[in-house]
Every structure is written in structure tokens, then in C-alpha cells.
Amino acid sequence: MIKNVFLKNLLIGSVFKAVSGVNKIVPKDDYKILLYSDLGFRDNVKYLYDYLINNHYNDKYKVICAVKGYESLQENVPQNVSFIRPTQGVLAYLRSAHVFYCFGKLPISATAKQKVIQMWHGTSFKGFAVNQTQTSANANSFYTYVYASAPFFKPIVAKKFNVSPERVTICGHPRTDVFYQPKAKYDLGNYKKIIMWMPTFRQSKRLGQQDTSQQTILPFLKDEDLDAFNAFLEHQQVKVIVKLHPMQDVSNIKHDQWRNLILMTNAEFENSGMDLYCLLNLTDALITDYSSVFYDYLLLNRQIGFTESDVDEYKKHRGFAVDPEKFRPGMRIRSEKDLKQFILNIVADDDEYEEQRQQINNLANQIQDGTNCAVSLKLSEIN
Predict the structure, then answer these.
(1) Which of 120, 83, 69 is nearest to 266 (CA)?
(2) Please, which residues bridge with residue 98 across strands?
(3) pLDDT tens digits, residue range 239-290?
């Protein structure tokens, strides 16, 4: 990933402009699918890949995965599947008639023989990253379609990716299809309730970005408070699994000493062998702040708590794509006391937000039957 905006624009205007010219004359293979992700083999690209393999599309199509971390994925691959480094994805792109992104993109102008689809990795709640918006010029030529999960978000998606409205089409996130499949059999222990906590990131060295000055990983809880919070959870027979944001810096946090409070970095989660959305399907509630995961979780119709430790500061720095006051259908958590009360509400099955969740779910998720992967392939004319 290149985070320097000037360098990105220079490459788009020179190297990739030349590649776009070459792309016009290279024949396309209608039986070649490219899945590209410069942030690892995960999220919508991975779920779409699983759908392709589980339904034997690789019997007919060659599936090329240009993903970071490809080295560990090259052994025992299915028939007609290959894993390559993201930079090799440029050559694969030139021959592929079907291209899917969910992190990043190859800024190459598509031809009429190609279907190039940006699935992205979340429905917009927070504002747009400067690193993205300053390097999206002429994006119309890069995509055949960009996904919006519902009509309400079409103008937001068009603005975010700097594409014309006709490039935006309705499709939800392939990752949510697992909500409609048999539940995973993960051994999470014996607890009254299991709650997932997914904070968005505040600071990232890799992105060179800082959205607020919050110094603690979890709002309202200092490092020295975590032992007591774990004891509270133990008393309530509740397990809280904190899935930290992949971009969050957590190098100075000790987090492996508790039984009821589980903090997991992205690397630790990947090593656990669990699938994030299969895990979400096993939980009783979600705690988050400005992460778009809550839109997906609405499909499960389970309780959501929204932490508000730095909303004003976040609004000033990163901002929001929608009105945050109207798009948080759940308890507002503004203190440690509120946090504990939310957990007590979950234990008692005290839910006063179901009607609000259903309203926002209908606004945010048009497809509510687990067919996003199938719709994705139909849009790309893969059959």
C-alpha cells in the first residue's frame, strides 16, 4: 500500500496511464476471474472466493487471487486457482474479463470486454479518508460497478469513489451471506452471553492517519481498569471478545491475561482459525463506535451498543458520511457506568431498540436473504 498521495497520483498519471493503453489491445479471457486485495486475503474478496470454490466455479473458470500474504496460500490450492503477489495482479488484470476489489484497486481503465467491480469493505458511516479521496480522480474508467448496499447510499458511494451515479449498483456485502448459513461450531466457552466489541481505529502508523487523540484502545477503560472490568464480566458470566481494527497500533498493550475479556489483534484473530462473520453470528450483541460493521450486524436483529467517547473530535477530524445522530439504533454508551449497564441489559434480554434497528436495516440493507455473492457473479456475467 502506497500512502503518499503525491506518489499515487504520479503513478496513476504516468505508469498506469500507459498500462491502460496496453489494456485496450490485450485480448480478454472470459473464463478468467481476478480477485485483488492489497490488505490481505480477507473480507468480501475472501467470502466471494469461498462461494466460487464451494459452488465449483473453478471447474469452468480460472481464479487468480492477487493478495498480500499470497506466499502462505500457495500450497494445496484447488483446481484452476492461483495466488500471486498484488503487483503481479497488473498482468493478470490485462487478461481477465472479471475483476473484483474490496481493498484498494488497480487504477487501470477497464475496457468494454471487462467487468471491474469495487465491492469495498463497508457501508459508509464515518467520513472518507483523505488518502482515498485525493487519489480517486477519473475513477469512472476504473470501475464497471461500485456497490451500494441500498438506494439511500448511492449518492454517498458516487461521491466517495468519484464515479457517476450510473456506475453505482445495488449489492450488499458478500461477507454477510454467512449469516444465513448454518452456524459455525466454535468453542467459545460456557457463558450466559457473548458480546463482540469492534472499535474502529484511532491511530495508524501504516496509514499515517490519526482520527482522534484517544490514547486508550477501549474507551472509558484505562489500562489499569481492565482487571476490574474482567472481574465484572466474570461475575455476570459474560464474555466480551474485542476484535481490534487491523490498522490499530497495539504494540504496547498486554492483553492475554483475562478469561472473560479477550483482546485480539488482527494477526491473533487470523491465527485463531475463526471467521469473523461466522463468529459474529454466534454472538448475542455488538459494541462498536463508528465502524460500519453495525450495518451488517443489523441483519441479525441483535442488540448494538454505540460508544461515544470522542464523537465531537471524530466529527472534526474524520467526519461522518451520514448524520450520526440518526444512524445509531442502540444504546449510547458515554461512560464506564453506561458500558456496564449495556452489558446488564444484554444479560436481562432488555431490548428497547428493535424497531429502530429494523428501520435502519431496511434503509441500509436492500438484500436481506444472503444472496450477495450470487448477485455479484450475476453483475459480472459469470455463470
Answers:
(1) 69
(2) 33, 115
(3) 999 998 776 666 566 667 899 999 988 888 888 999 999 999 999 999 998 8
Identify whether the C-beta of residue 305 lies closer than 8 Å to the C-beta of residue 185: no
| Domain of 286, in residue numbers | 179-364
Chain centroid to CA 162: 20
Are residue 146 and residue 219 in the same domain, yes or no?
no
CA distance linking residue 162 with residue 73, whole number of Å: 34
Pair 360, 269 in one domain: yes
Shared domain for 57 and 198, answered yes or no, is: no
Q: What is the CATH number of the domain that holds 259?
A: 3.40.50.12580
Model pLDDT for residues 9-47, shown as the tens digit of each residue: 566 667 889 999 999 999 999 999 999 999 989 999 999
Cα separation, 28 vs 376, in Å, equals 19
Going 86 to 91 to 92 to 94, the CA torsion angle's sign is positive
C-alpha 221/C-alpha 217 separation (Å) is 8
Q: Whole-prediction pTM value?
A: 0.89
How many other C-beta atoms can be found within 10 angstroms of the C-beta atom of residue 264? Answer: 18
Instruction: Measure the CA angle with vertex 109, ends 108 and 114; round to 5°.
Output: 105
Same structural domain, 153 and 268: no
Q: In this structure, are 165 and 221 located in the same domain?
A: no
Say whether both 69 and 132 belong to one domain. Answer: yes
Name the E strands within 5-114: 29-37, 62-67, 81-84, 96-103
Nearest to 89 by CA among 38, 53, 131, 51: 38
